Structures are given as C-alpha cells and as structure tokens.
Amino acid sequence: MTTLALEIHDTGIVAVDEAGAASDASPGYALYDGGTLITGEAAWRRAREKPRWVHHRFWQDLGDEPLGRPFPRGLSAADLAHAHLSEVWTAVGRAAFGQSTDDVLLAVPGSLSAHQLALTLGIARSVDIPVSGLVDAAVAATTVTPAAGAAAGHRLLHLDLQQHRILLTELELAAPPPALDAIGFTVVRRRLELAEGYGLIAIQDAWARKIAELFVHATRFDPLHSAATEQALYLRLPGWLEELRSEEILEARLGPEDDERAVELTRPDVIAAADPFYEHFLNLILSLKRAGDNLTVLLTDATCRLPGLESRISGLRGVTTVRLGAGAAARGAIRARHEIRSVDESEGGSLHLITRLSFEPEPEHEAAAMPAPRIEEEAPPEPEGPVPTHLLHDGLAYPITDEPFRLGLAIGEARGLNLTGQTAGISRVHCSVARTGGRPVVEDSSTYGSFLNGERIGQRAPLQAGDRLRLGTPGIEVLLIAVQDDGAADGTA
Fold it and tell me: Which of 182, 294, 319, 357 could form a disulfide with 176 if both were Cys (CB 3.0 to 4.6 A apart)?
C-alpha cells in the first residue's frame, strides 16, 4: 500500500508521499474564462486580467449555494473546489511521484465546519481519491516539530495564514495514558481563533499599493493603471518578498519590455505596509497567552514568508517561534498515518476527524529544544517594578488593600467598581484586585478573560506599577499606579 497525504489549504494544496517528496503548491484560485473553468496556478497567473471572473474564497466558503452573477447559473463553491481538487489529483494522483497511490490522508484546516468537512470528503471521493483518514492540519504539523525539553501541559499555538483570514490553533502536549506505556506526548487541539479579513490577499493588496506608490513617486508610472502591469506586479511580488526576507533592499522593475521602470524596494517599506495586519497576528497570540506563560508559536510556511513578522512575534515576552516547512501538515499526516486511518466499515466507510495524535520527538530533533514550560503549580514570577498602591480609572484612584476590590458590571454592595461604556466581553463580577502576602494580585473570574499588558492572565497574576489591566473587547482599561507618601519621601512621619 502506497500512502499519499494531501494538505488542503486555500493558499496552496500540497501533496507529500511516504519518502517526503512534495508537489508544488496549487493555489485556491478559479477563473471562468469564456465557458472554460481554469483552476490553481493557471488561474492565479491571470487573476488580475479578469477580476470579475475570478473566485478565491471557494475553499473558505465551501458550500453548494449558487455563486450568482457573473458566474453561470447554478455554479457553486463546491463545484470550484471539485474542479481544483480534480486538477491536483490528475497531477499527483494515481501515478504520484512515479508510484501507484491507493491510500490518501487529508490534512484539513480546523476552520472547516462539519458540513464543509463532509463536502470536502464527498468531493475527494467523487474524483476517485481513496481517502482513508482526516486529520486537523495543525495537529498533524506539530508531530514534525522539535519537542525536546517540552513537558506535559506545554501549550503551543499554530499560526496559519489563509487567503482571507488568520487561523490560530491552541494545542497542548498531554502525557499519554499510563496503560499505553508510551514515550512522548499526545498533542491535543484545544481551541481555534480566527481574524477575518486579514489574510494573504489583503496583505498582498497592501504591498501592491505601496509598490505602485513608489513607482508613481519615482517614475510617474502607475503599474495598477492597466491589467497587464498589475498582473505583472502580483506575479513578481512573491519573488521580491522572498529576497527581502534576507536582504534590506532590491531593485524592483516593471513595465513594457522596451520601457521597464525601476525603483528601490526596501525591507522597511514592505514591513510598514503590512504592519497593520501584523498587529492582528500579535493580538491573536496575546489573546491566548497567559501572564507568565512560555509559549511556542508554530509558524506555517505561508506565515514565514511575511517579511518581518517572525521577528515581531519572537519579540513577545515568553514566546519562542518554530518554523514549519512547506507541506508540514502533509508530512505529519504521513508520519502518523497508522493513527490517522479511521475508516469505519461498520458505518459505511465513514471517517472521523482526528484532533489528537501521539507525539514523540526524533533523535535528530533533540538539539532544537522547546522552551521549558512553566509548571502550573509554580507561582508566577514576582514583578521587579514598584508595588502599586491604587487602581486608576477615569481620573479616580482606588486604593488597593487586603480586601478584594472587584471590577465588573454588577458589583452590588461589595467594594469595587461598576463599569460602564464599552462593556462587551465583561462579566458581572469580572475580576478582583487585592494585596496577598504584601503584593497586589489580580484574580480573574470572568468568562472571556482579563488581559494584563495585552496578555491574558490565568487564574491570577501579580501586579506592578505601570501595568495596564484590560477587561472586555475593545474593553475598559485600568492603570496600576504607585502613589508616593510625601511624608515617607522627605523622611518625616
């Protein structure tokens, strides 16, 4: 039996065989051109020439509802996905990499709904792909990452970039059940977070506008003025970005062959254009990071190709990044194929989505250790800054004492502050602040969490002067301050 893994991703479907050989990525583009449906790379290369006839949301919005005009009557996103997957299977399927393929595993993004998973499986089977297993792509990719030094309870975040959104998957390493007598861990999917509208296409559009601005300013030539030069800009963009991952400056050339124009494109240029999008990556990570935590963030290949993003993420306190290569989810599926195969003949050959896998680091990975996780029972590190004496909100300072000071929407008779204004995500009794052992500590009792300097706290966290405590989204912020005793300052009682 020869096994092949297909990583279903709208930025590019990738196939990987048992030897680790990978196909070129086929992007999730479809172009309806004069009665002919073109998908993948060919559609992407012409997407700017006929933008009204291009569709690149069909994997994200997978469904059987008609797309509507200008597409032919009855054509659906599922039809486009079928055409795309059929093209990929024709290229890598029955004789993939020179071998007959009779067993295929699908690694799929966790953002697919149950209905979309069923559609994906139905489409795959309709083009004669012999699917024997379904696995969450983030879970599968984790099994091919370095893990030496990790321990049960360590949390990982798998950061992925799709065409139209960011997908962040929280994963946890758990100890295997004692009955299995196994070495290593079980990687378990815990939760998903999405940021809609901040995907690859929106970032590429921001870069295209910036580059066009540079051309107009330096040469009075606007590459976005015609479809041909706009398409040329988008075709050259990936190469320019790849070069700027390691270089600070390059010469970007565009225009007719006999009249090409050139401008200097710098790494700071592209980072500045993408910076508003990068903020959403960081905010997603911080929304799942608890104060005092050490986290490992796994960066997919699409994410790694964004110049400057990795350094922004690794600059977060307590965060270490690990790069995942192209097709990491497919490689992980191949590695864990015996666990992923889940055809249940008693249920008519139904499949179950795998969201946990055994995870044992290989010897060659042991040198690239993950950061040691913070043990849950261990107290958070004590802040080194000045001890806060008051909470400051709307110009009023509230003293911090041994008695809890509660913050929320319905504090009642208790000592505290009833919050009003932007209260989305704020609980009736959201959190409390009190001195514990001489040090002010915040304790969270909310549904959606409290955030200390942008990081979500666990059950409790120590405080220092200058800290910012945020409740809700976009939220209400309270500042921790230290009020100096004038008598103590001048030495008088």
Answer: 182
In a domain, 224, yes or no: no
Taken in order 354, 360, 364, 365, is the CA torsion positive or negative?
A: positive
Q: What is the pLDDT along the chain (493 residues), one digit of tens a residue?
A: 688 999 999 999 999 988 888 889 999 999 998 889 999 999 999 999 999 999 999 999 999 999 988 899 999 999 999 999 999 999 886 544 545 667 899 999 999 999 999 999 999 999 999 999 999 999 999 988 765 445 667 789 999 999 999 999 999 888 765 544 455 678 899 999 999 999 999 999 999 999 999 999 999 999 999 999 999 999 999 999 988 877 889 999 998 877 889 999 998 899 999 999 999 999 899 888 877 778 889 999 999 999 989 988 988 888 889 998 889 999 999 999 989 987 554 445 578 899 999 876 544 433 333 333 333 333 445 555 689 999 999 999 999 999 999 998 888 777 899 988 878 778 888 999 999 878 899 988 887 778 888 887 877 889 999 999 998 877 899 999 999 776 544 444 3
Entry pTM: 0.73
Q: Does residue 395 lie in a domain region? A: yes
Number of domains in the chain: 1
What's the chain's length in residues?
A: 493
Q: What is the CATH number of the domain that holds 477?
A: 2.60.200.20
Q: Which domain holds residue 480?
A: 390-486
